[in-house]
Amino acid sequence: MPLVEAIERHMEGNPVSFHVPGHKNGLLVKGAHQQSFLRYDLTELSGLDDLHEPMEAIADAEQLLADYYKTKKSYFLVNGSTVGNLASIMSSCKQGEVVFVQRNCHKSVLHGIKLAKAVPVFLETEWDEGSQTALGVSLDTVKSALEQFPQAKACVFTYPTYYGLTYPIHAIIKELHKYGILVIIDEAHGPHFGAWQGVPPSTLQMGADLVVHSAHKMLPAMTMGSFLHINSDRVNKNAVKSYISMLQSSSPSYPIMASLDYARYYLANLSSEETAWNEVLVDEFIHSLESINSLLKVTRTGDLLKILVRLEGVSGYDFQRVLEIEGVYTELADPFQVLFVFPLMKTKFDFPFKEALEKISRAINNANIDKKEIKRFETLPRINKISSLALSLDEMEVKEEKWVPLEDSVGHISSQMVIPYPPGIPILVAGERVTEEKVIRLKVYWENGAKVQGNHKLENGQIAVYDMLEVE
Amino acid sequence: MPLVEAIERHMEGNPVSFHVPGHKNGLLVKGAHQQSFLRYDLTELSGLDDLHEPMEAIADAEQLLADYYKTKKSYFLVNGSTVGNLASIMSSCKQGEVVFVQRNCHKSVLHGIKLAKAVPVFLETEWDEGSQTALGVSLDTVKSALEQFPQAKACVFTYPTYYGLTYPIHAIIKELHKYGILVIIDEAHGPHFGAWQGVPPSTLQMGADLVVHSAHKMLPAMTMGSFLHINSDRVNKNAVKSYISMLQSSSPSYPIMASLDYARYYLANLSSEETAWNEVLVDEFIHSLESINSLLKVTRTGDLLKILVRLEGVSGYDFQRVLEIEGVYTELADPFQVLFVFPLMKTKFDFPFKEALEKISRAINNANIDKKEIKRFETLPRINKISSLALSLDEMEVKEEKWVPLEDSVGHISSQMVIPYPPGIPILVAGERVTEEKVIRLKVYWENGAKVQGNHKLENGQIAVYDMLEVE
Fold this sequence. Notes:
2 copies of one chain form a homodimer.
Chain A: H1 2-12, E1 16-18, H2 34-38, H3 57-69, E2 73-77, H4 80-92, E3 98-102, H5 107-116, E4 119-123, E5 127-128, E6 133-134, H6 139-148, E7 154-158, H7 169-178, E8 182-186, E9 210-213, H8 215-218, E10 226-230, H9 237-246, H10 254-268, H11 272-292, E11 296-300, E12 306-311, H12 316-325, E13 328-330, E14 332-333, E15 338-341, H13 353-366, E16 386-388, H14 393-398, E17 401-405, E18 418-421, H15 436-447, E19 451-454, E20 462-466
Parallel strand pairs in A: 3-4, 3-7, 7-8, 8-9
Antiparallel strand pairs in A: 2-10, 4-16, 5-6, 9-10, 11-12, 12-15, 14-15, 17-20, 18-19
């Protein structure tokens, strides 16, 4: 861990800080939180290198990262996978160029396209009945898109999904490469993919050109710590470097960078005995969970470390609240279920599974749950697999907005992004026509108690649309 | 401290984490660094609010921040003042609009202008003989710029300078407001300005429209923690909100946000007795420092908490290395001096001044310093106060690059940004003509051992320029 060690070496000398940050190695922060914030929070001191021009500890740490994932070049990111997606897209497409994008991508992908002033072509995903969530795009959809837009420059796909689902992405990458299209994969949820046989392969192993990993999501790294991998010579390396430098703090956080160094080390030194324990413990936990109550149903995902849990007849939001009363916090709730994210463990003693099961059992026994009928998405109308924006970015800049009731919004063009969070996947994008399906989906999330980001007035039942004088 | 308290409340319950981040409240990180990284590193759990759509603890914490600084609206930033500058500029100028910018601004200001595709007009600063560093822009320069470019939309000034220097910015703000120009102040180094009589006022008190504060630099906040203040109704509030959301991680760091909450609390509760101690201790320290050795010269800056220290006949870089041998780390070195940044203390016992003086004394007595003649900037030729890029952004996109020796580069147009770090202020900007003065400055930094960021080959004496076929 070259960076962790460089920081430890620095701190060993009991150094006096006449530099930023203002807490002076933590001296000014009193109380319980002192140690939590501060010990590693240093700056570009001698021996600690510089993220924006690495030559020593950070360069070594990034080289070990590239060696582990077998990439051409790998970067530590301190502004999350958000900046990985922004830089990947902005370095791959110029103003006016077509980029294929999975319709239910993370909002940062849409932001990257907007900043690049590229032209998105949205590809609708398949639907997974088991998890009641969106899956990936199909090869057929990609082939149709290639027929309509053979001039496309790049594409962005999410693999795996937030829910840990996988789909046949290898064939899609091969098809797109036939057309010379640069493949960007938002693999935020799969930094551990390919680490051993018990988890799916990474798209790095399938020839994707640029791959983004949220190290902090599944590895023991700090939040905002991510990796960006350049995996082919098709990538404009200088442009990638330039954008990650422009879009990240010129004073990057050493705790976050050090935690990335730790996470790489942790993953690279995972033994087969350790991975086997993860499989055994997850199996045991699922078995014990289903024994608690017959209404508890577990759905496994493509990712060993993610399971979906439903309490029959109860919305995921209500189920999540019940668990929280006993101090059990899950990753997300949707109308149907909650998502549990397990740790990637080194030993069977790392995580309090037994205590968790006791708390879950208590939570369900004590719960006073208001059962409600949960609307299911499967009854929703099918929509077009391939769609574009109804207005160009230039047209959007000069249009006025107005507020309309959600009920009357079908056919209008949305002027804002509207995003239930989690999972942070936009239902409406600025410039896109509102369809009946989107209105129904938004209502399901809202009425079941999801938080919704974006500029909306859903508490008054309204969304913002462009004032087109008449609905076309 | 609503956010600190919300996090403490959450942790009190000994919660079980089935959510990201992957370290599971620190369980997976072993060894000395465990507590340093992780205790506060949570995610958007119930009760912990959401930075991108704040309604609870984060909304309360940001309101307390706005109340303290008396602004229209204040934001916590987790991607440093970098994102504050980017969002301020991108929300204030559209493609092709003119923006006045202090020539020696932070690189993030130039990045913001590039991303906005605005047209920069550079204003040269005055020179401060005492500190041998750049000061601010003069009112005369601003008036000349207004005559030449009355259509300018916005301006960006740095106040105070990295070295803690101030200049008559109030008159400049008033002059620019007469023309309806939006005033953005990169006040990264002055989050404590205006806190009491012993430090200069903040530009927030002078009517600046948008002000960016690196809370982490002078207050006890974590690195990457900054504030963005909207201080007038002239600002496009929706655009600001939209850009800070686009350019920051969708998983913002709770330790950084909590440390911002702590920093605001710390500043808002600073008593006059406490500020008096800071003044006394700085005076005592300077006096003791000058008593160590007659070659030690201290220059005070506008900021009580910053002093410049020279060891006569020795470059700042060499002086810094000598201090580091004894474990005394300063903020920056330039060819002449080092910059000491003092803590903003609550008590006289917060910081080991006595130990620091002993270490400095030992450092100087033990030092084997290779004295060299230091080149001084004051002999450099004067240059034009107002300058524009020699090539537009569109022209730059289609030009090829070539490498030329630094000696032969005068008259060429630089194709890369070249930035000695610290202080992170560009000497060459892409699209700008290379002048003799810039070449000389760059040589002074390079030959004295500064790190230089950007795409250059200074180790071979070369920089990149656009291939114009002939030098115009």
